[in-house]
User: What shape does this take?
Amino acid sequence: MTNSVWRAPGMPALLTMVAAGFSGYAVLLPVAPQWAVAGGADAAGAGLVTGVFMFSTVLFQTIVPAALRRLGWGPVLVAGLVLLGAPSLAHLVSNELGPILAIAAVRGAGFAVLTVAGSGAVADLVEPARRGRAIGAFGLAIAGPQLVLLPAAPWVAETFGYQWVFLVGALPLVGIVPAIRLARRLHARHAEQAAEAAAAGHVHQVGRRAALLALAAPVGILLSVTLAGGALITFTPQLTGDAVTVTLGLALLTATAALARWLVGGAADRFGAHRLLWPFILVTTAGLVLVAWAAVGAGSGASASSGGDASTAPLLIGLALVGVSYGGLQNLTMGEAFAAVPPRQSVFASAVWNIGFDLGSGIGAVLVGMIATGSSFSAAFLVAAAISLATLPLALRRRPVPVEPEQVRVPRE
Assistant: This one.
C-alpha cells in the first residue's frame, strides 16, 4: 500500500486533470458575471450568469453516472473537459447577457462531468481509512487554482483585458491527457472490484430512495455553505469599488477554503467527520453576518449592481470565516456522503453531493442578486446567514445508522 494518498495509483492523474479543469472554472466564475455587467446587465443579470451555469451543471450531473456506465470513463471525461474549456473564447464575440448565458449553459454540462466523475474517482482510488486525507488532496487540487486565479481574474480583466481571462478559461483542455490515464486506472480498479464481488458470490446495493435519505443531512449542510460561497464569489466585486479589496477578499476566501479542506481531512479520519460539522456551520453564519454588516454601505436597489463602499475590515474577516467553513464542510460532507452508501454506489453519492454543491452555488447567486436588487446586499447576506443557521439541527442530531446494503446473489461461473 502506498503511504501517501498523493502517490496512490491513479491519484496523480486525477489531481492533474482536476487542477486543469478547475482552473478554467475558477477564472471565469467572477469574470463572466462581471463581463455581463460591462455589457449593461444589473445585479440580477450578473447573478443569473452563475445561476444558469450551476443549473446546467446540476441538470447534467443527474445523467453523468449513467453516461459513465454506458460510454466508459475515457469518452465521458474527455467530452466534459472539452465542453468546459473550449467555449471560453466565445465570450469574445459579445458581452450581451443572452450569449453569455448560452456559453454558461454549455460550460455547465462540462463542469457536471468534471465534478461528479472527479469526486467519485476519489472513493474508488483510495480505501475508506484514508478517505479524509484523499478528499483533502482532491480539494487542494481544486482550491489551488482557485486561490490564484479566482481573486486575480477580475483584476487581470480590468487591467490587461478580458481576452486574457477567456484564454485561461480554456485550460481544461490541458486535462485531457491525464484524464485518459485516469480512465485506464479506474477501469482496471472496477474490474478488480467486480472480480472480488463475483468471488464472494454477491454485490452490495442500496435502493435509490434509501440512499437519498441517508445523503439528505450532509447534502443539506453542503447546500447552505455553497449558497454562501456562490453568492460571495459572484458579488464581492460589486460590494466595493476598490479592486485591491476585491482581490484580497477573494484571495482570503479561497486560501482559507483550500487550507481548511486539506487540513480537516486528517481530523476527519481520526475523529469522524460527523463530529466536526456543527462548529463550521456557526463559522459560516458568523462570517455572513460580518459581510452583511460590511455591506450596509454597498448600495441597495438599482444601485446594487454598481459597487459601493463596503467596510473593508468586516468584509475581509467575513470572507475569511466563510472560506474556512466553505472548505471544511466540503471535505466533511463528502466523507459523510461516501460513508452513507456502499462502495459500488460512490458515483451516485458523488452525483448527489455535487448536485447539492452546485445547486447551492446557483441558488446563492440568484437569491442574493434578486434580494440585493430589490432591497440591499446587507439584507441579502443576512438571509444567507439565516439559511446557514437553519442547518445546525442536521449536524447536531445523532449520526444515522449507515444504510444496510442488500446482498444480491451473483452466480458463480
